[in-house]
Structure formats: structure tokens, C-alpha cells
Amino acid sequence: MTAPAVKRIAALAPAYGILAGLFLVPIALLFAVSFWSVRSFKLEPGFSLDAYIRTFTVYGSLFVWTLLMAAAVAILCVVIGFIFAYGARFRVGTHGDLFILATMITLFGGYLVKIYSWKAILSSNGILNSLLLGLGLVDQPVGWFIFNRGAVIVALAHFLLPFAILPIYSALRNVPDITLDAARDLGASPWAVLVKVVLPQCRTGLVAAFAICFLSAVGDYVTPMFLGGGSAIMLGQFIVSEFSTRFNWPSGAAMSFSLMGASALVIGAVWLAFIGRRR
Amino acid sequence: MTDSDMPSLAISRRTLLAAAGLIGISGLTRFGAAHAATQLTWMGWQGYDSPLKQGSFLADNGIELAATFIANNEEIITKLQAGGGIDLATIYFGHVPILIAGDLIEPIDESKVPEIGKVFPHFIEVDAIRKDGQLHAIPFTWGTLPMVYDPAVITTPPTSWSDCLKDEYKGKVAITDDISGLISTWAPIATGTRTPTRLTPTELRETIDLLIKIKKEHARTFSPDYGEATDLFARGEVVISAIGWDAQVGFAAAKGKTLAYVLPEEGAMAYMDTLVIPKTSANKELAYKALAHAISPEAQAVLAAELTQAVVNSDAVKLVDDSNRAIYQYDNLDKLLERARFNPFWPLESDGTHATFQEVQDEYQRFLQA
Asked: CA of A213: how far to CAs of A69, A150, A209, A261, A274, in Å?
């Protein structure tokens, strides 16, 4: 092995070491545990598919609902994120970066603060109901603003929106103005410019935004716990309880890997639909 | 600076080095002293460590307290099964038989717990914390899971758990994620049983069906914990509970909301958290000292003042405030604990008749998903 090659390997070793030690090895161990069983709060090594069977028999419909809710959050984030990023890139001149900085500032508030803020907004005596009552639009507080899937989706989308805006804005910055000018000069309508010139050139950013938001939402368990009200539940809540309260690590691990696999399939399908086949 | 200045500089440097050396040595000594303290590892709910920190107990005994907070009691079982590393833990009394069966905790040497005679007999005599008469856990705090209601809206105190199912309270009922509390409270109503932790699979299913009906048709929402449920009362979103915690009255008072509780005629669940010393404890003598301190009147008073918890030491009652005495009715424990009962834990292994803890958890998942 040549000296430069040794140096290169030595330079990369810490990074691979951290990746392997903190990510790959724990994941591999957890994957192994997903085939074990548990008895009287004790793990028993072995090979059993019971935990995976349990995932789909006990949590089947919840599994699907979780994927659907995460997809709704991701789509909402991508649509709103695109509108915002498009405005920042093409409509506000040199102030675009300032707009992006403003979205980053919203992250400083923290995750739980946003959840409690939405509780303050949507609850029966919250800001929204107070406003509606004050304007005389309703006679009594509206109860369905909170403790349902809509509230969970809205709060998650609000939290994840900056993570969608960033990659989309980054992709839009790579769209040269000259291609837009060329399209317009050739007679393209604003809609045609958007659909045939802008969107194709930023689709990588759109898919990245979808993936980030989808993955963050699909594993969330705090937002549905506080805003879902027991009906808008997500699989993450039950993964937590399988690991902690029930000490059923095999079941929790199987649920986690099943969700990871399903998420990979969803993102792979989105990638294939919007990027893969066009290359 | 000239050469002639050098000697003085040299002296000065020597002095400086000597001083630095002294400082270093003194620092090292202090460092050594700080680390001469013995680390005592404790595991339990956040806040339950406050009594251990009361007064100068830790400093006087050279203890450096390392606290590990739990999100649920089962974490303690998991930790001890995995090998321990814990000197002292506070755990729900219902889990003590699991720890005893797993040979995970020490039998208590009562001679090392001087205040044990001051613990109310109602708690020290609970069967679950003993094996063959030998004490394996020491009561730390207790409470009841009564019906909590808003007296500003409900002026006549409810008398039955079924009162929360009246039409007038539809959508204004608080219900909290508490597997033991919910099933223990509603199994007697759904099935007529006297021992709600000994249910046949059919009785368990009937209880869960009733709970699902309450959750879907009567509850405002399903609260993840009692703090959230108290917030619902404070915001006026609920007025009555299908499961409550006496401490909620104190929590609500801190938010400026007056709540009341009642033990309905069907009875309610009593709970107790206990102190246990794991077999793997590396500092058993210190653990005993900490355990003894945790049930001392002064330490118990901290528990009452900071967490609105109930005390177990009869001498601590005079140290708690009036609101705590009003909530826990220490002078009336006999009557209180007639209605609020300590239930045995669910069977861990099948006896052919009753649902096991595993089956109870499975059914509870059905309730959570409904």
C-alpha cells in the first residue's frame, strides 16, 4: 500500500469509526434483537419472526395511518416550502437570503415550544376560538380544532417547514435566470415557465425536502401524544411503549425496522417517480 | 528590562513557581477530596431525589448522588435485569414482587432503618412489599387515584364513577394514560369484581370495551399524563375525570385553579412508591443511610412541599402544610384506605383462570389504538 493511500485511510478512519461505532453497530445489534424474544423482562436470543408478525397483526392499520400522516405532512411542507422558497428566490430580489434566515430563526424556538404554542392556539379557550368568538362567527368554542389528525399534521408541518425550505431554496438558487428569460422570450406563459423550466430543475431539492420531512414525521411520537388526543395516534408512540413500559425490545425493534423499510420504499418510489427515470 | 533586573526576575520566577506548585498541590488535594466522596447511584422519578438532598445529609456522609430519572417503573426492572449499577431505587410497590421473584433486591435489614417504626402501618404492612413476612421495600410515598372534578361547575360532589358518564359531561371528561389506574378503577364497574387485578380474559375484554366507550364517547381527549389532564381542568376544557390523581388538586392550585376530589362509592385505587436496595448495590451501607434519610420527617416534608406528595412518616405530618394535610387526610387514613385499595399486581405467569400482565398489556394496546 502506498504512503498516500495509508494517509488517506488514516484520515478517514475516525469518520468511519464514528459511523460504525455510533450508528452501524447499534443498528445491527437492534436488528438482531428484532428476531429475539422476551420472557419475564429478560431478552432471550434466538431467531423468531414473531415480533414482525406482531407488528403487522397488532399494529397494521396504525402502520398505514402513520405513513399516510407523514406523507401528508411532507407534501404540505414541500408545497408551502416551494411557494416560500420560490418567492425568496425570484420575487424579493436581493432580500431572498434574509427570508431564508428568518425561517431559520423559527427553529430557535424549539420543538416542544411549538407543540405547546399550537395547543394555545387550537384549544377550546385558545387564541383561534377567542378570535372567532370575539368576531361573533361562532356562539361557543369549536372543539375540533385540536386533538385530531389535522392538528398533528399542522403542528408537524409547522415544525418541519424550514427543513423543506432549505433544500428547495438551495435547488432554486441553481436555476439560472437565463433559462427563465429564454423560456419567456420563446413565448412560454408564467405557468409553463414554472412547470417546464423551474420545477424540473429543482426536483432534486423537492425530493430531498419530501424525504427529510417524511422521515422526521414518520418517527414522531411527541406531537400526536400532545395534540392527537388519543385518536390521532402514530406508530412511534407504540414503539416507545414497547421498548420502555412493556420491555418488549424485539417488538419495538421489529416495528422500528418495519417502519424504516416502509419509509425507504416510500422515498424510493418518490425518487423513482420524480428523478430516477429521467436520468 | 536590563540584565541587572534578571536576578530579581529569577527570584520572582522561583517564587511564582513555588506559589504555583503550592496552588497546584492544594488544588489536587481539593480535587482528591472531592473525589473521595462516594458516588451513590439512585434511580426513580424526577423530583423523588429531592428528599435525599435535604439538609446536609449528602455532605455529612460524603455522598455524591448520581440520579437517573425514569419515564416509567419498568425501566428500573430492565436496568436491574441488565446488571444493575444502581445502589438505591424508588419503584411502584406493585413491581416489588417482580424484583423479589427475580432475586434483584435485598431483604431489608430493619435495624438499619431507625424511622421504620414511624411509618404508618397502612403502608408498611402491605403484603406486596414482603416475602415470607420479610420486608423487601420501604414505603416512600403514596396516594390515591380518585375522581377529580371542578367544584365551580359541579357543586354537588359526584358519588359514583358512573357520574362522569352522564350526558351533561359528554366531551368534558378527563381520561389519562394509566394502565393500572384505568383498569383497576373501571373493572369493578364493568364486571363487578372486587379484585380488579384478577380478571378473567372475558372480564378484561369487558373492562377494555367500557374504557374504549369512555374514551370515544365521553372524553375531551386522552391525556398522556396527569399534568396534561390538570391543564385541561385549568383551561376549563374538562370538568370531571374518569381517572384522577389526588396530587392534581395541588398541581391545579399552583395554577390558580380550584379542584376537588372524591373517592366514589365503588372505590378507587391506592398506590405506593417504595425504596428498594438492589442486590448488586456496591454501596449498601450508604444506600441504607440514604433510605433511612429519605423517610425521615424532614426529608419527607421536602417531598410534600416540592411535589405535593403524601408522606409515609407519621412524624412528618406536622411538618407539611395545611393543603397537603387536606388532600391526604392523614388523620383519617383508616377510612380513606377503606375506599382506596392497594391491589395485588397482575399475575406474571398464567394460572389458567386470570389474565396475565402480558395479556392485560395487549388488551390495553387495543384501548390505546381505539
From this structure: 11, 16, 6, 16, 17
* Owning domain of residue A221: 49-278
> Residue B39 belongs to what H/E stretch?
strand B38-44
Which residues of chain B are within 8 Å of residue A247 when distances are taken between CB atoms?
74, 77-78
Strand, helix or coil at B63?
A: strand
Q: How far apart are the first and last CA of chain B?
A: 86
Assess whether pLDDT exceeds 90 at residue A64: yes
Question: Is B74 within 8 Å of A124 when comparing Cβ atoms?
Answer: no
Q: What CATH number should be reported for the domain holding residue A92?
A: 1.10.3720.10
* B175 neighbourhood in chain A, CB within 8 Å: 230
Q: What is the DSSP string of B140-154?
A: EEEEEE-EEE-TTT-
Name the CATH superfamily housing domain B38-142+272-320.
Periplasmic binding protein-like II (3.40.190.10)
Per-residue pLDDT tens digits for A170-227: 999 999 999 999 999 999 999 999 999 999 999 999 999 999 999 999 999 999 999 9
Name the residue among A125, A230, A245 with its Cβ closest to that of B221. A230
The larger pLDDT score, comparing residue B25 to residue A201, is at A201
Alpha-carbon distance of A151 to B66, in angstroms, equals 39
- Does the domain formed by B147-262+346-369 have CATH 3.90.320.10? no
